[in-house]
Each structure stands twice: as C-alpha cells, then as structure tokens.
Amino acid sequence: MPMTTLQQLLMRQEGTGPTKDGRFFPYLDGVGKWTIGWGRNLSDNGISKEEACMFLSSDIADAIDDVRHCFSCYDTLSETRRMVLVSLAFNLGRERLSKFVRFIGAVHRGAWDEAADELLDSKAAKQDAPARYRELASMMRTDVSVWT
C-alpha cells in the first residue's frame, strides 16, 4: 500500500529513534517519554490488544523458525511437544535454546523422560521460571497438555 503524504510528513518529523537492521527499539524521546517507531508514545498510550496480538503472532513465527533451526524433527513431533519447543524458543531465543545440547539430542532420539529431566536441570527451570519449566517438562514427558 503506498504511503500517504501525511504519513511521509509525520515520519520525517517524528524520526525513528534507535534502529538496528531495520528494527525499531524503544527510546526516551525529547521529553523523557518511552517511544518507539515514529513517535508512538508508549509511556502514555501503551499498545492496544490488537497490536499486542500482532506482536505475539510475529514473535511466535520467529520462535517457530528458531525451533526449526535447532530441531530437524519438529514436523514429526506431536502438537504438545511442538508447543513445548516453541514455548522454549519464545522464552530463550535461538542462541540460548541451541545451548541445550543434551535436551536437543534427547528430543531427536525421542527420549522424552531424558528431555524432561534436561529441562528441569537448567538454570531457567531452577531460577528464572520454575513453574513454566515444570509445566513444559511434564508436557514433554507425558505428551499431554490442557491446551491441546
């Protein structure tokens, strides 16, 4: 869709704040308000539920890409176990997920108890998000989820 002249004017006037590789990052504007993109005031306006859902959908797509990078067996897994992997990638990102070497190996072998144990043995499970990782380990071990 072509940009309107009003959009062009506001984009030039508002600036973009810090960007990296074409991505936008929050910044403090001239009056100390958290802003993103072209003058989107996060401090006062936040984001709508629709915008949050759009971000979530985009982040899920990124997480699935990360999982496919680390797990060649992704498409052969049950929906529950695919959900576990996507949740991990969503939480950890590709770089940190790829460091779960023993977990990745266990998943590729279909060693579900071992994979669950490896999750529970992680710093993420012990310190960062214990309840989340207990749930994910249980889902990996039993292939049962209240979500499916």
Number of domains: 2
* Biggest sheet details: 3 strands, antiparallel
Provide the succession of SSEs.
HEEEEEHHHHHHH
| Tally of separate helices | 8
Task: Summarize model confidence as the mean pLDDT.
Answer: 92
The backbone outline, from C-alpha atoms, is: elongated
CATH class of the largest domain: Mainly Alpha
Find the count of extended strands (DSSP E, 2+ residues). Answer: 5
User: The CATH topology of the largest domain is what?
Assistant: Lysozyme
Report the structural category: mainly alpha
What share of the residues lie within helices? 55-70%
Radius of gyration: 20 Å
The CATH architecture of the largest domain can be given as Orthogonal Bundle
Beta-strand level of the residues, as a percent range? 5-15%
List unreliable stretches of 5+ residues. none
Strand order of the largest sheet: 3-4-5
Distance between the termini: 38 Å
